Every structure is written in structure tokens, then in C-alpha cells.
Amino acid sequence: MKASQLFYPTLREVPSEAEIVSHQLLLRAGFIRKNTAGVYTYLPLARRVLRKIENIVREEMDKAGGQEIVMPIIQPRELWDKSGRWSLYGEEMFKLGDRHKREFALGPTHEELITTLVNADVHSYKGLPLLLYQIQNKYRDEIRPRFGLMRGREFIMKDLYSFDVDDSGLDVSYQKMHKAYQQIYERLNLKYRVVQADSGAIGGKESHEFMVLAASGESEIVYCTLCDYAANVEKAVCSVDQAVRTEEESRPLTKVHTPGQKTINDIVEFLGIPKTKQIKTLMYSADGELIAAILRGDRELNEIKLKNTLQANELFMADEAVVKEICGAGFGSLGPVGMPVRIYIDLEVAAMNNFACGANEDDYHFTNVNLDRDFTAYAVADLRNAVAGDKCPCCEGNLQMIRGIEVGHIFKLGTRYSQAMQATFLDDKGQEQFFVMGCYGIGVSRTMAAAVEQNYDENGIIWPLPIAPFQVIIVPVNINQADQKAMAEQLYQQLTANGIEVLLDDRDERAGVKFKDADLIGIPLRITIGSKTLQENKVEMKKRWEKESFLVDIDAVIGTVHDIIFK
Q1: Long-range contacts of range 299-302, CB-CB < 8 Å, 24 or more positions apart?
Q2: With 361 labelled, which of 100, 267, 289, 487 sits at a CA distance of 20 to 30 A?
Q3: In terms of domains, do 172 and 64 share one?
Q4: pLDDT of residue 243
Q5: pLDDT of 241
Q6: What whole-number distance in Å separates Cα of residue 274 and Cα of residue 297?
Q7: Structure pTM?
Q8: Is residue 188 part of a domain?
């Protein structure tokens, strides 16, 4: 490809809308353009990267026994009603109607459709196991589409669905996909970690996320320093450190006037009580019911854990006016003593005694509060976020935190969808059984963005070799010099003939402009042709990820490039 013919409109300034590195650089380097919030056009450079990611994904899916199909984007409401998810999925679903007033959705996921498809055509255990996948656009009406391709309304995704006879068959399919995903991200040359994860709205009994490690990642990953335990913060198990348990005698419950003191920090200053001897009371509406969640004063609530504990479909922070009407006080003065709603307490709180909390009366707090004596809990559960230094739930090690970007997620669905949709087959005894399912997703467009978040410098993108839009860029310092132009053309033809993807920068621009653009778009290997080096029968080469360049004899260019690209 000649640069003079390539559509890659680069920008010198960082767009004001772009908050994270991948969004900034993909816009600046001419890979994407925004159409509306969360919706982007992929320009030629982006399509080249995406095609390479898709091809690697496709090869590994095929190798694992997957068969590619393409399912419709538009899905009829009746399928989602059958699974019960039309109302449960929430406002993220794009809904539309046709001229006959029938309702449809733009597919945010395809569990209902694939289950219907297989149920119609697979009737016997002899047709199982079955692995079907697609690479398809998905649509989710994100409340706050942000960060470019990281959280969009339209995105490219690979989703594979497995159908098995029983749970042991599902285990085999799950492990196949687990291994295939590891192969994919190793082939992409991305640093990643596999973590235990919450199954969320898709459901199922077990799931793992594949996280590309990046300081800018939106997800926190918890991992053990001694064993292989790793989980996202939503799933990380928090056990009670025995060190927090105290055997001190219960002291008399005391009510204290605390005018204007509402926060945990306020009480630290006003009463001299540390955060670890306070509790915080958070009020939520769970499927329309007001409940209280109780944590140690220095902890953060994990809403996913709370929602799972409650088995709630909808969970959101309660309205303060409603809370005050029912409980007698506003936020900052609440506590479990006399609380007229169900109380859910974290494991740590159950191990505490003589702690402080709000008195359910504005400007008053209790001290020396004790569970069972002063209040009772409806349930005790793991409700908090894990933090660095927590004990590993699997060994004696300590937990640490890193950040990552979720790019893949695999789920054991079991019979969650097949039962809801009455999808069955006949087993080897002629008995009707529900399909045992798994689902396995990869965010293709998100993986492209994650690769940028992990690979860049102050000058632009540094694409990993397997997914770079071009492998080599040839830059003649002065395209108007006949000898430079001729050598550039010669090397371009030779490299192309040897299977190398080459971009020839034949633009009539200053060398500095060409170098800046080459660095910005992130092509791994640059070959510079100048008059001085030509006189020595050499060219200059520079690897994008290294600071220094080096000289290569013209006769050795093909071999050197080949060794770098295909090492």
C-alpha cells in the first residue's frame, strides 16, 4: 500500500472528548471516527487490525471444534419473553418495532436465538457436543458510553455457544475454550491474566474473565502472591482475618450527641474512634424492598455481592427521603439498632464488638454497639470489596491488586436457558433431557483498544507484531530524489513478494512529518532511505519499541526483516 493512497487522517492535537490513551491514539492516528456517543466508524487501518484479531480468534475456535455461523442482529421479543429476560435485561437493550407493531431487540447477546436454533434441529445425543460461534456486531444502550471502544453502544464480539449432553461434557467444552482463549491472547502478544468472575445478567454457575493487564484498566484484579488464585474484585472472596476478632468485654450501649457529624471521618475526629471500630450503614432498594447493608467503617460495599446475596433482579441506592420517613434519620445518622428493615451484615462486622454507628436520629450516634445484644441481622455474608493485604481464601498468602481490561469471558450456563426455553434432546436411553450449555465471548474491538492501552509511548501506538496494520513502513527522506525513490520502490516490491505487509510513505512531506506519523500509527519496523546511507549501500532500520536505529546492508534487508517479523 502506498501512503498517498491510504485513507488515514491523522490529528496533531488530542481530541477533547478522549479521556483514555486508546481513545486518544486511535482517533489521532486515523483508525476510528466517532459517529455518535458510543458508535464509531472503523477506518482502513483499524479494519486491518480487527481482521487480524478476528483471524486469530477464528483459527483457534476452528481448532477447538467450533463451527462458524452468522445469526441475525434483529431478535423478536417472544424469544426473550420465553427466557424471561425481556424485562430483566434492563434499559441497556435497544428495542424497536416494525410496521405491524411487533417488538424486536438489537442483539446485545444471542443465548435465546442460538438455543432456539439448536432446539429446532438437534434432537438426539448423537448430534452432541456442538460448538457454534459467530463474529458479529452487538448493541447495548450504555447509560454512559465512554472511553472510545472500551464502552460503546455498538461493538464487535465473538460469541461461541456449546451444547453438551451433561455437566461432564460441559466441563470438557469449557476447558477447550479456556485453553483456546489462552492461545489467542498469547498469539496476540498481550500480557493477560485469567480470573474468577461473576456471571452477571447472563447467568450460570461458573465463569472466568480474561484480562489484558494495563494501568488504565477499568477493572481491579485480585491475585495471591503464593498460589494461582485470581479474581476480579466483584468476585474476590473476602475471609475474616482472625486478627480482627477481639474478646473484649461488652460495654454498655451509649447514645452520644454528635451535631453535624455525618461521615466516618467526622466521627474519627469528633469522638476519636478509629474507622475499624465504626460501621457504615448503606440503604438500598432491592426489587422495591428497602434493606440495610452494614460494613466496617473503612470498607467499600461490593454491590454485585450484595445483589447476589439478595438474589435481586434490581438493586439501587435508596432515596434519602424514603429512608428518613421509614428509619427516622437521613444518611450519616443511620445504624442497625432499631432499624425497621432487613439488615445484611458483612462477615467482618459479625466479628466486631463495642463499635460505633448512627443512632437513627439526626445528630446522634451510638457507641459500644454489639451484634445480637443490640440488634439482629437477617443474614451475614461476604459483602465487601477485597483490598491489598487481605488473606488469600485458598492459602496462607496475601492478596495484591492490579488493573486490567476485560477482553474475554467464559461461562458455564448449565440448563439456565434450555430449561427456560424448553430446549431438549433424547439421550441414549430415549429420555428427554435439557441441553447443557456454555457461552464464551471475546470483545474483538475492545481487544484492539486494550492492545493500545498496553502498548504505547509518548509518540504513539506500538502495535504487537501479530496485529499491526502493516509490518513495515518504508520512509524515503526525500521522495523527489530519484535514487531514494527507486530504492524505496525496489524494497517495497521485494518485501511484498516475500509476504511482508508494507506501507510505502511516498508522500511529498518533510522527513520529520513522516517519522511522526509512522510512530503515531505504530508500525513495528521502519526502514529509512537517505542519500548518505545509500552511498554506503545501506538503509537505516528502527524497531518501534526500541530507541536506537541501526544500519543494514541493502542486500541483507529482506533477511533481516524476515528474522524480526517472523522470529
Answers
A1: 299/346, 299/348, 299/384, 299/385, 299/387, 300/384, 300/385, 301/383, 301/384, 301/385, 302/233, 302/234, 302/383, 302/384, 302/385
A2: 289
A3: yes
A4: 47
A5: 66
A6: 8
A7: 0.86
A8: yes
